Q: What sequence folds into this?
């Protein structure tokens, strides 16, 4: 489906600045494309957009660039962006209702147990084992020699919502999950798909049981997340991060390399490299030698 920016502006009461464009889909600031719609509420990101159709707050007017069409709004740009996708681009949302597990079982280099659900548009590396009752949704890439234990849910739709008065609007979850090589996911754990980009778990990570990895999170190489860990959406963990039992991070947290997080800790602020943190809220208690 395609839609013009004039039609979008009229539908949602937006102010159109720049040439009328035909929109075919969406993109993100990190991978901007023409004829796609993006959004931002941050002036720093606004200034870095050089193509496409941008939904932005009206207070940013006067800072336009050539080759960009602007849709200015009074409400939350994220809300308007969600409404645009929900109205015009429902066809881009994955169809995760058909089980294609028998197709993946044809690969002799992959072992898949009974009672698994694997949607289309999934890639599984050789040597990977998937244990019973696991669900893997579309947009998932799993590397080599991984172990996905029983009752896991990979690329699950996350909790993405925006308030519009008394109405709660679902923010489309259109991204995926990329899992590197030699990764182990413990039983009953959930890896949420990216809202627009991808949730990324890099090589050698070990994630324990009953853990939840939020959307658009990036977990560095050789991290160990023990049981019942929660990583808030859009967080970034460096390499060799250890999270003790029941450790939690707020969303959009940045954690450096070689960090130990004590059990039960609640991370509310960014953490530098090479430290041990503990508590609620967590505080640096000593250095952690590399």
A:
């Amino acid at each position: 489906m395609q839609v013009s920016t004039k039609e979008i502006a009229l539908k949602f009461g937006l102010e159109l600045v720049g040439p009328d464009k035909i929109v075919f889909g969406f993109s993100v600031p990190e991978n901007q494309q023409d004829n796609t719609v993006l959004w931002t509420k941050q002036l720093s990101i606004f200034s870095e957009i050089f193509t496409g159709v941008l939904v932005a707050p009206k207070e940013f007017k006067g800072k336009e660039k050539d080759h960009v069409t602007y849709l200015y709004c009074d409400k939350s740009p994220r809300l308007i962006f969600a409404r645009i996708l929900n109205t015009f681009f429902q066809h881009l949302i994955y169809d995760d209702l058909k089980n294609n597990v028998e197709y993946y079982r044809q690969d002799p280099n992959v072992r898949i147990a009974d009672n698994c659900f694997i949607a289309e548009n999934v890639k599984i590396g050789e040597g990977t084992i998937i244990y019973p009752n696991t669900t893997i949704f579309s947009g998932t890439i799993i590397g080599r020699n991984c172990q996905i234990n029983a009752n896991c849910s990979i690329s699950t739709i996350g909790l993405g919502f925006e308030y519009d008065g008394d109405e709660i609007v679902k923010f489309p979850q259109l991204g995926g999950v990329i899992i590197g090589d030699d990764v182990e996911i413990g039983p009953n754990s959930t890896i949420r798909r990216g809202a627009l980009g991808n949730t990324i778990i890099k090589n050698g990570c070990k994630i324990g049981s009953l853990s939840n990895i939020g959307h658009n999170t990036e977990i560095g190489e050789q991290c160990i997340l023990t049981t019942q860990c929660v990583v808030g959406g859009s967080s970034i963990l460096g390499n060799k991060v250890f999270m003790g039992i029941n450790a939690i991070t707020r969303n959009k947290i940045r954690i450096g390399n070689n960090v130990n997080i004590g059990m039960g800790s609640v991370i509310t602020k960014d953490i530098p490299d090479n430290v041990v943190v503990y508590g609620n809220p967590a505080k640096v208690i000593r250095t952690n030698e590399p």
Notes: Residues 101-287 form a domain with the UDP N-Acetylglucosamine Acyltransferase; domain 1 fold (CATH 2.160.10.10). The mean pLDDT is 95. The CA atoms of residues 232 and 251 lie 4 Å apart. The first strand starts at residue 3 and ends at 4.
